[in-house]
Structure formats: structure tokens, C-alpha cells
Write a structure and sequence with these properties.
The structure is a single chain. The protein is mainly alpha-helical. It is built from eleven helices and no strands. Helix 2 packs across helix 4, helix 2 packs across helix 9 and helix 7 crosses helix 9. The longest helix has 42 residues.
Amino acid sequence: MPVTPEPSSRQPRALSPAVALGGAVLVGVLTALQARINGQLGLRLGDGFVAAAISFSSGFVVLVALSAILPAGRRGFGRLRAGIRDRTIPWWMLAGGLAGAFTVATQGLAVAVIGVSLFTVGVVAGQTVSGLVLDRAGYGPAGVVAITVPRLIGGLLALVAVGVSLQGDVLQRVPWWMLVMPVIAGAGIAWQQATNGRLRQRVGTPLTATLVNFFGGTVVLVIAAAVHVALVGAPFAVPTEPWLYLGGVIGVTYIFMSAALVVHTGVLLLGLGTVAGQLVTAFALDALWPAAASPGWTTELLMVIVAGAGVVIAAAPGAARRR
């Protein structure tokens, strides 16, 4: 049974399809940058869980400051408290940070080995299937979005790009869990984007929806990092390069943007636009800074072309039909 879109006392101003899709692509660019930064931090620390906890907690500190300073943040937090108290905001709307925590942990554990491109195409598979299902069920704030032929073809082309990435001996060189975790993360990202969009409608600002995500994710990752350190010991020497600690700020930016954009795009189109930005950026990063298990620039270029074609087809006029 379709989920009814959440009412909002203040509807977001409509964006043109080109602007909304451009924003989705930028989300993908930032996601790929964060993946490379968090992966490198995990490699330098020798502990992906600690790297993920550092990334999320730094973003949470930034969001607390912004929510206290900005009037929109204070209003949104007031609506959040009232919604929780009155039970008009259900618990599952507060759980988006769990998907974000899993994604950042996957970055810290796997990206330094498999590269941004292989990580991204795994995310593509999960996002595409999950986005189609969530849109059809009407889970996102845009309501029920029909699975039209262009959207289906766009999703299938994204999955073809995943198949291209697995050519050669990748499966022999990479542990299987490093390939499965990004797929699960991608499915979680699509659910997270839809959930954040609905929470954004309830609290009136993407800032508060992002704050809720980072609070939940920080709690989970700090506990996971503490347990991991207790089991295997403290990480290596802490690196001093400032850029290794930008992952949290980048995460704040793209989760905020996702919560604001999903109501204009639907879950699948936001995911496909994000994928396009991720793949292009991943190709550039892996070309300049190859990972150990990189499939090579020719394979990565083909992946970008195929996935990009899928986005263009899915975004064609009339491709998204709401009910």
C-alpha cells in the first residue's frame, strides 16, 4: 500500500528539473570525495572504524554549531522536539543515520583497497534497485513515482555499469565482503535519502534532518570504534594532514543537499544523478591516485559512459510520472 506523503506547513519552492538534477550530480561528486578521504584516513590509522567515527563526529559538531547559530536550525530543532514529544514524528524517521554510519564505515574499511570506482559501482547497484522499489511504494516525500520505461532502462544501464566493473580478475583480487558492503550501503543510501526527505517535511528544514542523521550515526560509530579498539588495540599514529579530516564536513553538505532535493526528484532520479557525479569523480580520482584493486582507466571510463547514459535516459522529459 503506497505511503501517503507527509504534510508540510511550508512547502519547498519548486526547482527546475535541470537545477535539481545538477544538485544531485554535485551530491555524487561530494560523496566520491568523502569516500576517498575517509578511505585514506582509515588506511593511515589502520582502523576503518575509528576513521568513520572521526568523520561522523566532526560533522556532528559542525551541525550542532550551525543549528544553534541559525534561526532555521533553532526552529527546526523546536519542531523536532515537539514532534517526538507528541509522537507525530515516528522513530523510523530518526533512523537515517544508521545507513550513513554503515556507508562511512564501508568507506573507511574498503575504499583504500578497492578504489573509489569499485566502491561507487557497488553503491550504484544498491541505490538503483532500492530507489525503484521505494519510489514505486511511495515511500519518498514525492509520493508514488511510477516505474516508467525510461526509468527502468536507466536503472538497468546503471546495473550494466556494475557488471563492467567486475571484468578481469577483480573477484580474485578483492575480498568478497569488500564488494558486498558497498551494495548494502547503496540500498541504505536510497532509504536514507527518502527518510531524510520525509523528516525534512516534518521539521521544515534540511538542517535539522541532517543533524538527526549525524547524531544517530555518531553514537553508533563511536560505540563500534570503542569496541574495535578494545579488541584489537589503538590505531597507528594519528596523521596530521588537515585534509584527512574533511570527510565529516563534506558529509554534512551532501546529506543536507539530499534531504532538500529528494522532494523535487524522487528517490531513483536523485540516486541516478548522484551516481553520475560519483562515477565521474571516482574516475578522475582513481586515474590520478590509483588504488591497489583498480580495474584500470579504460574499464572505469566505460563504466562512467554507461551509467551516465542511464541517468540521461531516466531524466528525460516525462520519464518520472507521479501518482
